[in-house]
Design goal:
The chain has eight helices and six strands. The chain is an alpha/beta fold. 37% of the residues are buried. Belongs to the uracil-DNA glycosylase (UDG) superfamily. Type 4 (UDGa) family.
Length: 197
């Protein structure tokens, strides 16, 4: 009988690949690649843009100031970090926290695709414009500005069933544009009702 590898085995193998990756020049300037963190058996996956300084230091996603905001938003809807899966579209930190380039996204996106295939989430929450643009395109939606579509629920069909995509502002927005924090909180409340439906 053929034994099917568990989600954990598949993810560990993938994470190992990410840690050794040299597909784009970012590997030369990283301290640690940041594959992702959280539950492999979750229904909900958060996809950010790229690691920042603290993420690069610790090898974990969303551990800096924006990560604190994300933790508060999760707590607001009764979720713990350990109950969701958090990753980024680009797994290594771009120098000086600049935006990821198209080449970097293209080189790294297959890892994200594999993570989605392994976890098979019911809901993908995209945090920020780069992950939103990539995920929307991947599932056949038009790419619109995040300011227009944040908090909306998009339904997509996949080989493993229905999936909901919820674009949101990046949590960092709450740090430099505090007036958007309330919008983030409202979007998270919508997420809560989607999860409980």
């Amino acid at each position: 009988m053929i034994s099917v590898p568990s989600k954990e085995e598949l993810m560990k193998k993938l994470e190992e690949k990410i840690r050794k990756c040299k597909k784009c020049p970012l590997w030369e300037v990283r301290t640690n690649p940041v594959p992702g963190d959280g539950s492999y058996d979750t229904k909900i996956m958060f996809v950010g843009e790229a690691p920042g300084y603290w993420e690069d230091q610790m090898g974990l996603p969303f551990v800096g100031k924006a990560g604190k905001v994300l933790d508060e938003l999760l707590k607001l809807i009764g979720l713990k970090r350990s109950e969701v899966y958090i990753t980024n579209i680009v797994k290594c930190r771009p120098p000086n926290n600049r935006d990821p380039t198209e080449e970097e996204i293209k080189a790294c996106a297959p890892y994200l695709d594999a993570q989605i295939d392994i976890i098979k989430p019911k809901v993908i929450v995209t945090l920020g414009r780069f992950s939103t643009a990539y995920i929307m395109k991947k599932y056949g939606f038009n790419v619109e500005p995040i300011s227009k579509i944040h908090g909306r629920v998009f339904e997509a069909r996949t080989l493993f069933g229905k999936i909901y995509i919820v674009p949101m502002y990046h949590p960092a927005v709450a740090l430099y544009r505090p007036q958007l924090r309330r919008e983030l909180e409202e979007d998270f409340k919508k997420l809560k009702s989607l999860l409980s439906s």
